[in-house]
Every structure is written in C-alpha cells, then in structure tokens.
C-alpha cells in the first residue's frame, strides 16, 4: 500500500516507492529551503511555503490527469518524475535573482540535465541514483520538463495551461490569504482531452480555463507584482549583482550562488561588507526603499514607452535620474515591468465544433484579458525614504 | 482608518499605528525567519509558518477578547503590545535547542526585559524606541508576557487557557493539514467572563474548552511529538551542544546562538567541521537517525519508570547502551518524553453554579485527558540506520 | 451582551434584541421554508439553503459596512432592519414563478409596505408589531429596500454593488460547491467610501469589484441558468400558470399563491388534477423535459434575433413548433434568455483621480464583461424525451 | 467516462450508469425533500441539507474504502448500491416521529425489502426496476443495509464505525457551522484493515477513531440534542400522534404518514383542525414551548433515576404534573433522554499487537467517553411560555 503525505491544498497525496526515493534526495530536500514566493512574506505574512510542497502538488495534479487516460507505463513514470523534480534547477529566490545570474552564466536555471547525471561517492542520495535504480529515461524526463516531450502530454508540465500553474495559483492564493487564485482544478482536468495526439480543452473546460486566466490576471497586481515585494526583490538583486561583480570570477561565482538555498545566500550577503550587507540588513529590518514614482507604463507618452522597451535605455535613464538627485549608484532603482509577459494560456488549444482553435479565438474574454494584462504593466522608481523628494523632482525633470 | 493584514487563519487583522510601528522593528522582523514548528516540515511539508504570523494572530485574538469587555485604555494597550511581542525572546528553533542553551545561560529565552530597554544609535527601529515614543509601561508589558500581570487579564497571554495556545493550535493544524486543532475560538471567547477580578470559563465555555484540551491531546502525538520531528530536533540539539562545548566561552557563545535566526544557526553548523556539520547535513538531506527502540514509558517496568525520571540516569543509560553497541558519542540518542508536561488547561477556573472551581473538577473528560496525556509519553532510542540492529540488542541487554 | 448565530458563510453573526424580535416574526420564519435557489438542488444536491439564512447574511454585511462609517443612529437601525427583511415579499420559488404571478397581479413581489402595516389579533408576532414597538420609520425602511432611500446608503441594499449580491454570490457558491463565487467581500468593503453623499468605489476597491462582476458572469451559465434547473423552473411555472388560468378569480388566486411557501405550493400542485399534477410529479421524480434545441441567441440569424426580442412572437413560434410536432399545449417550452439582463454593477460609481466615473469607464475588463454577458444568452426548446426527435425536426423547419 | 456531481463536503463524487439510474428513481428523489436534521434549522439556519446528499456522500465514502481493497465485483456493486439507498425507508422528519409511527406499525422504517420488489406500471422509475435491469441481488443489498451482510464488509454500512456516521458527522458539522464534527475520514479509512474476514482498526486508525467518537460526543449536546430542536421535535411528534389517534385506522394511517416527505406531512398537519394545526403553526412561527425544568438525569435522586427508566412511569409523571399545573393534555411535554444511547463505536474491533480487542479496551479515552456519554443525558419539562411558572411549581412538587 502506498504512503500518503498531507498537503494543506490537495489533502492527501499518495506516493509510491519511486517517489519516496526521489523525495529523499539531496536535490529535492534542498527545495524545502527555497521559498516559493521569495519576499512576498513582507506583505502576506503567511506566504512562507516552499518549492518542495509546490513540487509535490504538481506531481499530484499530473497523477490526477494520468488517471483519466490510458498512458504507456514508461511515459507515465517519466511524467510523474518530471513533475516532481521540475523545479530542482532553480536557484535561491529564483524569480528574484535569476535574471542577474543569467547575465553571467548565460542559461536559465541550473542545467537540470547535468543534475540528472551527477553521482557522488558519499552517503547522500541523488536524483541520478534513483533514475539509475529505476531505469528511467533521462532524456524523456528532461524533455517533459522543458515542455518538449513526445506525445500528447508534451506541454502538460510546461505549456499554455500546465499543472505547474494549476498548483501554484491555488497554493499561492491559499497562503497569502488572497481569494483570487481559487482555480477549479478538478473541473479543468475534467475538461481536458486529447485529439490527434495533442492536449486540447473541450467545451466543458472553457469556463474553468477562463477562470484560471482571470486568476492569474488578478494575482499579478495583488501578489506577484505587489510593489513592496518588487522593491525588496530588486534591492536583493542589486546586492547580489554587486557581489558577483566584485568577485574574481563572476561566472563561477554566479554558478555557486545559484546552487545555494535561501538561507545560504542570505548569510553570504550578511557576511559581505558594504552595499550587499546594507541591503540585506535593510530588507531583514523592513527598511525598504519607497516609491518616488509609480504609474502604468501605458499612461506615459508613446515615445517614452518605446524607449522603455530597451533595457540599456532604462539603465541610462536610471543613471541620469540618480545623478540629478545626487545619489550614489545602488540607491535608486528603476523598475519597468515591461517584461511581465504574456498570458500564454490564451494560446492553449481548444476543441470546439470539430475544430481545433486557440483559446483566445474561442473566448472574447480571454482575448481581452491578454490585452489588459499587457497594459497593466507598471513603471516605478524606488529609493530610500529620505531621498524620495529629491528623486521625485529628478524623475519629473528627466521623464 | 486602520490598515489590515491578511492572515490565512483569521482572515483580516486590523492594525493601528502603534502596532504597525512595532511590526517594523528589528526584533519583530526577525520572527519572520524563525519557523513556528522547527523541523515539522520534514513530516508535514506545509508546516513552514513563522513566529511572526503566530504573533500577529495572538495579537488579533486578544483584540477580540478586549472588544467584549470594558478595559482601562492603558491596560488595553499594554495587553495588545504584550501579545504581539510575546515571542521576541525566543531563540532559533526555539523548542528544539532552548533546553541546551539554558544549560549554559541559566534563564529561559532571552530576557525580554533587556530587549525592552535596548536602544541603538543606528537607523534600525527597535521595540524600545516604540515603547518610548508611545509612553508605554515596560513593567506591565513584561508582567503580562510572564503571566503575572495585574488584574483580570493576568494570565490571558500565558496561563491555563491563553490566546497563545488558541492561536497556535489552529495555525499548526492549518499548515500541517492535520484536522485535530480546529479549536472553536469564537465560542471559547464567548464563554469567558470575569468574576472577582479573575478570568473564568462560564458554563457555555466548558464544551469549547474541553475541545481545546482534546485538540492539544491529539496534536501532541500527531504533530508536536512525531518521532521523525523529534529525531531531527535531537540531532540538531546535539550538534549545537557540541558546538557550545567546543567554544572558548560556552556561556557567551550560547547567548550568541540564541540571538540568531534559523538560517544563521543553520549556516553556523554547516561552517563548523566534524560532528555539527555532519548532523546538519544529515538533516538537510533527510538522512535521519532511525528508531531502534520506541515504546510508551508507562509500558515499562515500574522501577525503570522511576529511574527514567532522573535526567542524569538517562544520560548514564544512553552511554551504557552506546558502549555496548560500540558507538561513538553522538550517534545514539535516548529520548524520554517524561517532560512532555501537563495539560495545564485543566487548572483553568470555571464559574458554575455560583462557585469557582477547577476545570478538571467540572469536567470528567478533562480529568481523564490530563491523566491520559501523562501516560502517553514515549521513550525512544535513535541511531543511524546502519547501527540499528546493534543498538536494538544493546537496548534489550540494558533495559 | 448580544447573542450570536452561527452561519456557515460568515462564521458568527451578532444579533441584538431588535433583530431577535424580527427574526421571530411570522414573516421572517416563513423564509425558512423558501429555498434560495429553487430547483438548483436537481443539479447541485447541496443547494438547499433558504432565504432566511441569506437575509441574516445580508444583515451581517450591512453591519460590517456601517461599522466603518459614522452614521446617524436612526438611519443605522433602518438600514439594518431593511437588510434583514428585504426578501419577505418574495413568493415561493420566487425567481421561478414571479413573472407568471405578475401577469395577474401587476406588481413585483408582495407589496412589503402592506406587510409593514399588517397587524393581527392572534398570538403570532408580526414585523409590523416590532416596527411599532421600536418606533421605526416604515417609509425609510421601505425606501432602502427599493434602493431609493435617502443619503449615501441609498443603494447599498439594492443597487449596482449591493450587500444582497455580496451575500448571495458567496452563499450560492458555497452550497453548490462551485468555486466561482468566492467574492472577497472584506476587501470590497474596505474599498467603499462616500464622496458628496454618494457611495463610491475607491481605487483600492476596483479589483474586488471586478472580481465580483466576474463571479456573477461565471455563476450565470454554471448555476443560475443551468439548463436542467431552467427546465424544471419552466415546467413548474407552466403548471402554476395553468392553475391560475383555471381558477375563478385569477388575480386573487395569484395573490394567494404568492403568500405560500415552497411546500404549500408544491402540495397545491400535487392536489390539483391533470397538467399541474403531472408537472410536479415529473419534477419530483426527475423526469424532466430534455433539450431538443439549445444554442446561443447570438449565433442565430440577425432577423431571428430581432423577432426573439418580442415576447408575443416567441409564444407564436412555440405554438407553431408544437403544432408541427403534433404536441398538446404545455409539452413544449421555448426558452429565450433574452431577459438575462445586465451586469448592473458596471454602472457603479468609482472615485478615481478626483473624479467620479462609472465602473465600466474605469475598467476595460468590466466594459467587456458586460458585453460578453449579454451575448451569452441561450435559446432552448424543451420537451419530454419521447418527443425530442419530432420537436427537433419541427424546430429546424420553423427557425 | 463517469459523470461527477459536486458536493460541498467531498468535492467531486464520481457516478457511473448504475448509480445514475438509481439516483433518478422515485425513491431516491424523494430524499431531496427530507431534511437530514429535521428542525435543527431553528437553531442553525444553515442546517437545511437533505438525506439525498447524505446518501451520495455515504456512497462516496464506501467507494473510497472499496478502492483500497480487492473485492469481488458483485460484492462491490451490492455494497455501493446499499450505501446509496440505505435511507430510502426513512419517513419524513425521521428521527422525530419514527418512535410514534412505530407504536402503530411495529417495525422500524418502511421495510426497504418491500421497496426493493415494488414495481409499478407507470412511467416512473423505481429502485426495483434498476435492480432487475442490473441483475443485482436484493437479499445481499438488504443484509448490508441492516449490518448483517456476508464477509468482511458486513458492518461497514451499519455498525460500530460505519460510513453512514462518517458522512453525517462531517456533513452536519459543515452545515450547522459547528466545528466539532471534522472527522478525519481519510486517515480513518487508511487505518482500516481486514483480519480473519472482519474489519478492524489498525494501530494507525486508533487516533482518528477516538476523534470520531469525540466528535459524536460533542455533537450531541451541541446539535442533535439542542433543547430548542428537541422541543420542536416533540411538539411535532405529539401533533402527529394526535392525528393518528383520531384516525379510523391508526395503523394504516401511520403507514401512510411514513411514506410522505417533509412538506406533505407539514401540509397534513396544517390542514388538520385543532391541536395538530396549532402545533405546526407554533413551530412555523417559532413560538415554541419553553423549558420549565432542565437538568442532567444523573443529578437527580437515585430512586428517581430508576423510575425514569420506565416509559410508562414517565407518562404518569407527565400527567401528574400537567394536572397539578392545570394544563390540558398536550401542553406539557416531559422529555427524558434516557434513550440517547450508546457510543457503539466503542465496541469496534481493534487489531493491536496481534490481537483483536474492543476499541474501549484499547483506549482509555474511549472507555471514558462512553461512560460520560451516558451520564450526559438530560431531563426536561417543556410548556408554553405563559404556563412556565405554574409548571415549575408543579415539577418541584412532584419530582
């Protein structure tokens, strides 16, 4: 008989021997020490959940889907494993500092593939050991994680509408206490089907899919892009960048940082001198930068909007405002959420009246939400409270 | 108008300027980095909640109670502050290593009183600053935290049935996903009254009070004393003890450790060599000691039960078994939960038929639970998996 | 001290003497016997909640709002009473048969005003008695119920965004088990304010208001207009119409029916002969008409859409199809949801950048939802299963 | 693919063709019109749930259990059917008037066995039709309902710890808003096993079983035996008794009443003259009898306790008090909960240390709860408010 693990979101999650073995590896256990939402706890004190529980939840949802269809045994195993380990390549405070790390390492997250091969001679158990023991196919697992696997389930883990999102929306909603993420996963799963070897949403699934999009739409301004969280994230990212820049071998150091967990990178910053130590102390004592300027990108002049689509230009503007306000580098942060991205769910395939079309074609609501989503990006300029007035004046002069 | 903070347990928590100022102090912010349940996440992956949110919840419950009675304004302020800050003296992994720390420092927790006076010249905000600014009475606050305050609310924060318990039972229950802690706090609060300047439970409050006791009774074996959590705690505590012993000034070092947060003490152990590093690595990789022996204390021979009531004797037995099994010190842990303690709720005062009596006199159930609670203590002997058989034989020979 | 009543939605609801007296009247107790959602239990077995609990919930929400503002004492009492009794004029299965009743009586619901004056000499307690005893102003109460009261709270009970909707969306969502109605009432209430003596939504309230609209948008197709529920409703309404038509004094009989509760009108239909008895038996045994035709109104030819905007024309079409399919009157029902109505929330006033505008102007999403809401109306033709094929052919010939 | 039905308690309940066919029978649909908790809505306005949803929930729980074991296909079908239909023999307001009905009919509930054979020539679908169509074994189904089936699952539907209780405790708890019934069904199910062809609780199941008992223990005084509900029930039962007594053929009339649903028996009482009409009107207008006397049976003199164990003697005492207070028959009700019964769960079998023993032997708590349960029976004397003082004096004189 299988063991069960309690989960506040999904109730009981059943695990078998393979999954138990994977949970007990070094790589999975590290996820206990990486918060799912980084600094969101500064706004929502309950948001302390980890990538470990999210991974379990993602695994559970794929199980529910696999139970509804006839799937080749090997494929089923690979999908379950892929769902469970899909986040092991994440660095600490992943969403926060990944862009900084990538500047130096040139690839996103740690290459999980390396990890799938890594053995050690010590007593620790690694994912690679379990994969060997159970004769699993590394390449297939890797492809599912990237959303490039074979067959109908190709994008179930990483695609338009995937189990990753389905877990994190509900989970983040639960722990923040924000009602908006209550996606109806069961109904969505009941509304999935496979046509011509691709996963599609049936008519029955359109409503829950619309709801999932709407949830994401509301979670962004309320949780993911809450300005207080953004400010802490950016202060932290700058501190990390400073640290990498001052190291002898930035690329190696960036790689080292990515392998840490949240507490290790915290300690590293605290043990550093100067700017990094100052930033982590400010965050830990909740003395955060304040908003000197904050508005919708879409409310700015058109020519400015265009300028802001260029990262280099943003850096220049930041520097210009800093100078005019008389500030040292690092005490003014310009944040342009241009990159908040798409509601990629709108590209999901829908099977309706014997045709496969895009969700955005099937649903006026979805088309509109995608548009509104892009338009809701904010631009902010953040600085310590005492410089706020000076910065405000400088922003007005420059923008 | 007051601000609100969302809390997954209580919904919305209202805070005014004073409370906001306190939340933004160094001392309160540190509680974001101390888990409420230490290593329980190893069994219940959702149990990552912190002392910060628990403190907010405790404050919220005292507010609900204060709203029901007419209380002097100063008293009300002191009680609200005391509830909010009652945990700031806790060390990292408090329940885990406090006994070890106390061996060297001689008092429980950091003396909060010191903290209430501590000012610094830096930009950080401290509790002492807020207390000065709002002209609050340090002594009264301190007394309420100790459960020795004046007046009817003397033990509302720290007593038989207090808001501390009322918050943590529900909160721990929620995050672990264990149903047992769903105390009916609203009904309990409705069942409180004040007679002759002491808080009593009225007839209406007896049922919810019985329920609270029963919750605690069930939460102990299921969560608080789950053997896996216990094992991780004890491995950690031994590592800390080793570290203190090897330091030049054990007392000072113990005091330093207590001021850390969870991640700082983790890092300290990892940076150490030898036994402490080994222990923290084992915990982080979930390679925990296993149970070689595990039974109810009450099922042992009477003379043995008596022996086990003596800490020094337990140490001796542990050593004896270690030797017989051929183990180095630190690789065998004997755990006798003798100290699991009382269900002190049974001593709460009940007002019934114009008389004030003890809850255990008013309720057969409570009397019985208190008895059963004491009898459910376990004794365990833990060791790495590979030594389990050897230890089992040694235990049989010695006990 | 006030009494409390438990409510699965809002937890504890406090009531004082006035409210207790009102709850114990004949008129309020009758609401225990009127289901909030009529025949929805045929699809959602949990949907058995009553107008009584909804009335209590509405009262509770207005209390939460009143607590946030300074309101004249009399106004506060009137608003609380109005919220509690706002539904007492409803007939049994209100939404189902009110249109039928109105054809004969000419006004919507029973005139609550009559009720506010009605005294009887018996032992029963009536709302009018309580109003006298507490010297409340009937006219003001009546005006608040109609959404025409004086002052800033004029439309809080019956307007664009009102406490009636705020309660029923969450309540209906809870009992049906449909996740979509989880409106964040607390955040919405925090986002209300009063400018120039009218209630407005502040910037902070826009998101929860959008969410409320979206909830209603999803609850319509999922719950309120679910085809199975619609079919049962229409069968029932036809049976009632038949009964009224065959009575000697249709107007008086319609008035009598409206004063009944759900079980009384059920029994009346069962005790009748012929068609009404047949219909109620079919509903009670779940032998419902089936859909012979079902599509979006907006998918039809334009000229047809225009025709369908005329009630008389719909009746003609129904007759024509019946004849062609060879059916007796009453065994074919044509249902055109043209009347599903507006999302009147979009007309709510928003205060933003020092201006008061409509919510639909402030929010692209709201504008779009209102449009999509109108376009989602369905047209259906329902008939007993055995006639389905014949009716299908007839519909194709006629439409 | 199976259909799903939403249930507020269990989420989604899967049903196949057989179950769908059963749900659509006359007998099952009638359960939509029978409230699970009778008059509890007078105290808990949310308690309007029906035996229909409870039946679905019971079916769902047995499914969860069957999924965990290998069961013969026929046995599985019979158990699923038995769980779904186990309540179809119940009369309206079952717990309220069954004792009265039985006085005249001599057997408990309608004989479901009759029902399993009853065919009609009309269009209605009956359980008997479905049983024929699917070639199910009537006797086996009947035996499972009675708790006398063959094999290991003999008492799973009707025994010490059964799925009936497991559903209703959680369901009643949910709709009343009383926290006490939150039984951990999943953990309990995980703790069941089969030894020597009988169902046993394993060590792992003891805690959740204790919890279930405790829940029942608390639900009795809080919900099931709440004095207001008891009073309404007894007023109703007396009205029904009066009606039966005045009929020409009491036995036949009692059988007719049992076949009704809640609304039919309500209407019957309202259409009667005199006492029955008065009682139902009082209940509907919430003008209930009040407590003139109310105490624990165990607090009375021993000789009185013995007298009260005799039903005839209670009737005599009631009459004596009535006379002394000058009341007509029917306006004074003496209610002795002597019959509240046992916590039969304590007799459940537990498999522990290779032995099968009773739960009450395995658990001190359970032994104690059973005892306390019996001792918590109340005795009450109820009468209209205006006679309360007179009755009080009469009670004092007589008891």
Low-confidence stretches of chain A: none
Rg value of chain A: 22 Å
Look up the CATH topology of the domain at 3-222 and 342-374 in chain A: Hypothetical protein af1432
Q: Which percent bin holds the helix content of chain A?
A: 40-55%
How confident is the prediction overall: mean pLDDT of chain A? 89
Number of strands of chain A: 9
Name of the CATH class of the domain at 3-222 and 342-374 in chain A: Mainly Alpha
What is the count of DSSP helices of chain A, taking H or I runs of 4+ residues? 20
* String of helices and strands of chain A: EEHHHHHHHHHHEEHHHHHEHHEEEHHEH
Q: What fraction of the residues of chain A are assigned to beta strands by DSSP?
A: 5-15%
Largest interface: A-B, 45 and 45 residues
Shape of chain A: globular
CATH architecture of the domain at 3-222 and 342-374 in chain A: Orthogonal Bundle
The helix-and-strand class of chain A reads mainly alpha
Q: For this structure, what is the CATH homologous superfamily of the domain at 3-222 and 342-374 in chain A?
A: Hypothetical protein af1432
Oligomer: homotetramer
Largest sheet composition of chain A:
3 strands, antiparallel
What is the spatial order of strands in the main beta sheet of chain A?
A: 5-9-6
End-to-end CA span of chain A:
65 Å
């Amino acid at each position: 008989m299988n063991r069960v693990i309690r989960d506040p979101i999904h109730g009981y999650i059943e695990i078998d021997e393979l999954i138990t073995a994977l949970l007990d590896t070094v790589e999975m256990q590290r996820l206990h020490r990486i918060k799912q939402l980084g600094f969101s706890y500064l706004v929502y004190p309950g948001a302390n959940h980890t990538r470990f529980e999210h991974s379990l939840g993602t695994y559970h949802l794929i199980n529910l889907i696999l139970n509804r269809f006839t799937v080749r045994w090997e494929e089923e195993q690979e999908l379950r494993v892929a769902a469970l380990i899909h986040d092991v390549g994440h660095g600490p405070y992943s969403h926060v500092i990944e862009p900084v790390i990538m500047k130096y390492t040139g690839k996103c997250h740690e290459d999980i593939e390396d990890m799938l091969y890594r053995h050690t001679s010590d007593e620790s158990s690694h994912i690679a050991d379990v994969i060997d023991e159970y004769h699993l196919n590394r390449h297939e697992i890797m492809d599912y994680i990237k959303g490039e696997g074979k067959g109908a389930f190709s994008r179930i883990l990483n695609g338009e509408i995937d189990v990753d999102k389905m877990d994190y929306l509900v989970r983040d909603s639960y722990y923040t206490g924000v009602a908006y993420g209550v996606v109806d996963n069961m109904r969505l799963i009941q509304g999935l089907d496979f046509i011509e070897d691709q996963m599609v949403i049936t008519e029955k699934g359109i409503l829950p899919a619309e709801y999932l999009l709407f949830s994401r739409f509301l979670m962004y301004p309320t949780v993911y892009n809450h300005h207080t969280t953004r400010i802490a994230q950016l202060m932290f990212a700058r501190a990390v960048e400073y640290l990498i820049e001052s190291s002898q071998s930035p690329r190696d150091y960036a790689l080292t940082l990515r392998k840490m967990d949240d507490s290790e990178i915290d300690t590293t910053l605290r043990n550093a001198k100067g700017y990094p130590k100052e930033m982590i102390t400010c965050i830990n004592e909740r003395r955060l930068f304040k908003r000197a300027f904050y508005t919708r990108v879409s409310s700015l002049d058109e020519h400015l909007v265009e300028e802001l689509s260029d990262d280099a230009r943003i850096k220049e503007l930041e520097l210009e405002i800093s100078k005019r306000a008389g500030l040292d580098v690092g005490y003014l942060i310009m944040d342009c959420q241009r990159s908040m991205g798409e509601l990629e769910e709108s590209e999901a395939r829908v099977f309706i009246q014997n045709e496969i079309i895009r969700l955005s074609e099937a649903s006026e609501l979805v088309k509109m939400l995608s548009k509104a989503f892009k338009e809701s990006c904010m631009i902010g300029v953040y600085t310590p409270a005492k410089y706020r007035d000076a910065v405000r004046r400088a922003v007005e002069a420059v923008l």
